[in-house]
Amino acid sequence: MKNTATLLITCPDTKGIVAAIADFLHRNNANILHADQHQDAENKLFLMRVEWDLTDFSVDINHFEQAFSPVAHQFSMQWQLKLSQHKTRVAIMVSQYDHCLADLLHRHKSGELACEIPLVISNHRDTEALVKFYGVDFHHVAINKENKVAAEAAQFKLFDDYKIDLIVLARYMQILSPDFVARYPQQIINIHHSFLPAFIGARPYHRAFERGVKLIGATSHYVTEVLDEGPIIEQGTDRISHRDQVEDLIQKGRDLERVVLSKAVRWHIENRILLYANKTVIFD
Amino acid sequence: MKNTATLLITCPDTKGIVAAIADFLHRNNANILHADQHQDAENKLFLMRVEWDLTDFSVDINHFEQAFSPVAHQFSMQWQLKLSQHKTRVAIMVSQYDHCLADLLHRHKSGELACEIPLVISNHRDTEALVKFYGVDFHHVAINKENKVAAEAAQFKLFDDYKIDLIVLARYMQILSPDFVARYPQQIINIHHSFLPAFIGARPYHRAFERGVKLIGATSHYVTEVLDEGPIIEQGTDRISHRDQVEDLIQKGRDLERVVLSKAVRWHIENRILLYANKTVIFD
Amino acid sequence: MKNTATLLITCPDTKGIVAAIADFLHRNNANILHADQHQDAENKLFLMRVEWDLTDFSVDINHFEQAFSPVAHQFSMQWQLKLSQHKTRVAIMVSQYDHCLADLLHRHKSGELACEIPLVISNHRDTEALVKFYGVDFHHVAINKENKVAAEAAQFKLFDDYKIDLIVLARYMQILSPDFVARYPQQIINIHHSFLPAFIGARPYHRAFERGVKLIGATSHYVTEVLDEGPIIEQGTDRISHRDQVEDLIQKGRDLERVVLSKAVRWHIENRILLYANKTVIFD
Amino acid sequence: MKNTATLLITCPDTKGIVAAIADFLHRNNANILHADQHQDAENKLFLMRVEWDLTDFSVDINHFEQAFSPVAHQFSMQWQLKLSQHKTRVAIMVSQYDHCLADLLHRHKSGELACEIPLVISNHRDTEALVKFYGVDFHHVAINKENKVAAEAAQFKLFDDYKIDLIVLARYMQILSPDFVARYPQQIINIHHSFLPAFIGARPYHRAFERGVKLIGATSHYVTEVLDEGPIIEQGTDRISHRDQVEDLIQKGRDLERVVLSKAVRWHIENRILLYANKTVIFD
Questions:
Q1: Residues B45 and B29 occupy one common structural domain
Q2: Which residues of chain D have a CB within 8 Å of the CB of A23?
Q3: Could you list the residue range(s) of the whole structural domain that residue B270 is in?
Q4: 3-state secondary structure labels for all residues of chain D
Q5: CB atoms B214 and A237 under 8 Å
Q6: Which residues of A carry out catalysis?
Q7: Which of B136, C150, D43, D283 is the most buried (most CB within 10 A)?
Q8: Does the pLDDT of residue A1 top 80, yes or no?
Q9: Percentage of chain A with pLDDT > 90?
Q10: Closest Cα of chain D to A241: distance in Å?
């Protein structure tokens, strides 16, 4: 089993950053497996992802912060360290459309997603058998206008109980409260069934059909307080024609949604995403 | 040289339409080369395009209306007849970005576009040498807030003088007046440098960059009174990443714009486009 | 439930075919829902698909052949009549990679595939639980060099017992005998994990990686006697880069395979495919 | 005007390479603009591209080799240094199809290609006026079986006279001699009008049409001694259907060829391509 550390860094761009990081890792005998960086000229930002094998690494990983802090301070870095041994714990929320859910569960079982999926929450019972077939706990939390606060409280408790790191909205048709969103910053991924920012809001396939577009799309993004305005992680499009009715758009869209959502989840759990200025950098 | 007629029909959907049209053509000894049809269930509409060789056709094409009118009346058809011998006469309007202009002129010279291009109008002089190299008349019509009415009047006169059937806005950076648009219904094609309806209006690549989308697009459409809301003819998208700056978006966008605009022009001049409900049917 | 008939016709191209068919249908009060045709100029062939509602149709569908035969004879037609009430009965064959199998079963359950899937045959037991979860019969037929004739005989018996119309090879890693292929002409669909005709044969992703291509592909096709040379139904490609290792190609390829195979199956069961000259016409 | 240096490095992968390079650049006050690296696990290779501003760089760039040699020796590096002030000098070779030529000349004039294009060589005269319109020297070198050696000698002389760094075969329909190819290693880029390795050799669109593929492609690659087997730089595909005849494939293919060839040329002149194991790494 892979035993690596991944360091994600954001800091003001200046000379000597790479030299300092590379020197730190080399002095401590790190075997670098992947390194990628990005400089944003407009915002004068430096962003980096570096992953190394822990086998020969001479720093006790529990004391990494102490060892790395001189470098971090010198360049005013924001940084996170992720260990491959700690697998991200994912909860999936779903309503009745189950194609993204089935896809994520199957990919996970096939070894494509290096995470744990201990929990699925739904406001319907339709997907219960499927979830259980894959050996995952299913919790039904009914939600309506009256019980929304209590229902979300029940959801929070489940996330706590299952020690959830990431919440995936796999066609979950309820709008999260501001409190919910604020509680899990950069930890909620949604799939929107349009090529955002086109067709923000409800019934995007119907509106795409009415507008007569020649391509439909899907967008995975982090959820922020403003609906459908969070940082975009991945998008896809597919060609349609006048021969396609709304039902055909919905069907073609399902294939986009599956791929676009699963890529976002994979990149997140592999610690390949950095955020700045409401945008994502994907270190693929 | 090809000598064909193309009939474009729109009518309420009912039984017997195809039988009546096919019978009419067969009785008159038409050799059908292409036929395509579309039924819109929601609007209960029938749309058809049929192209036949005129060599053996027994109706004098100048009296086609008279011969066809019984069928047309029976089914309340709107119809147009297009003859391949009459080539569409195209005027291109352009400002300073000349990539779509150069592309259209080269495609025309290569035989890819079966039209005449006798006229280019620009509010700048930058493209004059290029236009003349391809043997096309270039007219400079300066335009600003003060002279807009007079400038458009000069443009209308040029369209009349050159007997123009179709106006192509190949990155023409002026907004046409309502009078201009009303004068040439379904005869003005524009290229918008975004995946409409995303980024309607000015500077779409800059706004795409700010929003952090992962795909950029281009859209060709007929111009109607509402800016960027006309019927979409063709769209294309291309993938971008965080490594792409605004300049890269603009550069990648140029490749989309060329292809997306040229397809719209080709389909129009080959009489492959029918309009209804602010949408296009493309009989490709 | 839909109650329609679909007529698929191939005949030499000549004048009057459409008129004769449309007249036949109109005389018998058919309500045409979709009609599409194709003329192959090189081979002088006419191909047509027409689907109509049976509600008001005045011909007893059991005596359709008799009613239609004058038209069919006049134009030397090869034709097939398909009824929506008779759902295609599909058997899926699979080895150990189960992503296409899981995808087809889920699409079927979601109502995306208007067929019956009563039978899955595998030379392994890995997929048994998944198949049974979807309520489909699973039969294990071990196969090796020694028992191939007997194993295929057992498979034929299963196809007979389950009245199978279509066999889908969903990553079935055994080569069918010539006898098998000859027995089910145009009734076996395979998914090949390359952009055919590139990388015919085994281990296409490994060979794509070695060659350094920048796109990978997948191809669904009918199985004929020559391996990987049957008529192509659908193809897809996806972009890769030097950052992708063989494992990444395999993973990206799975998404292509799912979509490309499921489209082929859907078009087949919706009677949208006509074959000629080792090619497919897809009436979409 | 940009004044940067780009260092391209290939060496056995081992610990400390990045630290050594970053330290070297930092000690010499380089302002790094872009850095990208790739590790090939299978071949245990490390490849890097780093570009920095020369303004504050403390090493005299004419003595770079001397300054860098300790690092280079320590890690057994193969390396090249490229200066943005030295623009690549490109010769285009073309026969009669001029779409790629016109595209490259227009992109160059628009500032999209940061190179010089002083020379076009053709075995026909068709493109002479176009070439001269763009202010480029045109040389006609007739070639046939009898005069091939002499004709190529004349071409070599032209390349010498014009100090050519890169030869672009923009639909040049002659096979280069082994001597020609050997003379310009990694300096000849070709566009092949198929998705290699499918349809190697002549008339790929015709063979694609016969095979009934559903996608066509184009491939840009470096020319090596084995025809169509050189390292692939870029590929593209576009969807076709049974409605497309050979002429349509050719027309759609032209759009692919333009984009795919121009990307290869741009990446080459921007020093973004490294070669190993008959593959390309594109540092985009």
A1: yes
A2: 19, 22-23
A3: 89-282
A4: CCCEEEEEEEEECCCCHHHHHHHHHHHCCCEEEEEEEEEECCCCEEEEEEEEECCCCCCCHHHHHHHHHHHHHHCCCEEEEEECCCCCEEEEEECCCCHHHHHHHHHHHCCCCCCEEEEEEECCCCCHHHHHHCCCEEEECCCCCCCHHHHHHHHHHHHHHCCCCEEEECCCCCCCCHHHHHHCCCCEEEEECCCCCCCCCCCHHHHHHHHCCCEEEEEEEECCCCCCCCCEEEEEEEECCCCCCHHHHHHHHHHHHHHHHHHHHHHHHCCCEEEECCEEEECC
A5: no
A6: 228
A7: D283
A8: no
A9: 95
A10: 14
DSSP output for chain C: ---EEEEEEEEE--TTHHHHHHHHHHHTT-EEEEEEEEEETTTTEEEEEEEEESTT--S-GGGHHHHHHHHHHHTT-EEEEEETTSPPEEEEEE-S--HHHHHHHHHHHTT-S-SEEEEEEESSSTTHHHHHHTT-EEEE----TTTHHHHHHHHHHHHHHTT-SEEEESS--SPPPHHHHHHSTT-EEEEESSSTTTT-SS-HHHHHHHHT-SEEEEEEEE--SSTT-SPEEEEEEEE--TT--HHHHHHHHHHHHHHHHHHHHHHHHTT-EEEETTEEEE--
Residues of B contacting chain D (CB within 8 angstroms) = 98-99, 102, 106, 110, 112, 129-130, 133, 243, 251, 254-255, 258-259, 284
Q: Are strands A116-122 and A89-94 parallel, antiparallel or unpaired?
A: parallel
Distance in Å, alpha carbon of B29 to nearest chain C alpha carbon: 8
> Could you tell me the strand order of the sheet in which D215-222 lies?
D137-140, D116-122, D89-94, D166-169, D188-192, D215-222, D232-239
pLDDT in tens, C167-185: 999 999 999 999 999 999 9
What value does the mean pLDDT take over residues B144-158?
A: 96
User: Does D213 lie in the same domain as D78?
Assistant: no
Examine the domain organization and report whether C58 and C189 are in the same domain: no
Q: What is the pLDDT of residues A116-172, one digit of tens each?
A: 999 999 999 999 999 999 999 999 999 998 999 999 999 999 999 999 999 999 999
Strands, sheet with C116-122, edge to edge from the N-terminal-most edge strand: C137-140, C116-122, C89-94, C166-169, C188-192, C215-222, C232-239
Q: Which residues of B touch D133 (CB under 8 A)?
A: 129-130, 133
Average pLDDT over chain A, rounded to an integer: 96
Examine the domain organization and report whether A104 and A244 are in the same domain. yes
Q: Which residues of C have a catalytic role annotated?
A: 228
What is the Cα–Cα distance from C188 to C207, expressed in whole angstroms? 26
Mutation target vs B (from C7, C25, C26; most B CBs, 10 A cutoff): C26
Same domain, yes or no: A93 and A17: no
**Which DSSP string do the residues of A115-135 spell out, in sequence order?**
SEEEEEEESSSTTHHHHHHTT
Q: Are A171 and A191 in contact (CB under 8 A)?
A: yes
Of C83, C100, C134, which residue sits at a domain end?
C83
pLDDT at D227: 81
Nearest chain B alpha carbon to A244: B40
The shortest C-alpha distance from D272 to chain B (Å) reads 14
Interface of chain A against chain C, CB under 8 Å? 98-99, 102, 106, 110, 112, 129-130, 133, 243, 251, 254-255, 258-259, 284
Q: Determine whether the interchain pair C19/B16 forms a contact, defined as Cβ–Cβ distance below 8 Å.
A: no
Q: What is the ipTM of this complex?
A: 0.94
Residues of chain A with Cβ-Cβ distance to D32 below 8 Å are 15, 18, 39
Could you give the number of structural domains in chain D? 2
Residue type for B233, please?
I
What CATH number has the domain bearing residue C120? 3.40.50.170
Cα radius of gyration (chain C) = 21
Nearest beta carbon to residue D26 from set A16, A32, A239 = A16
pLDDT at C182: 97
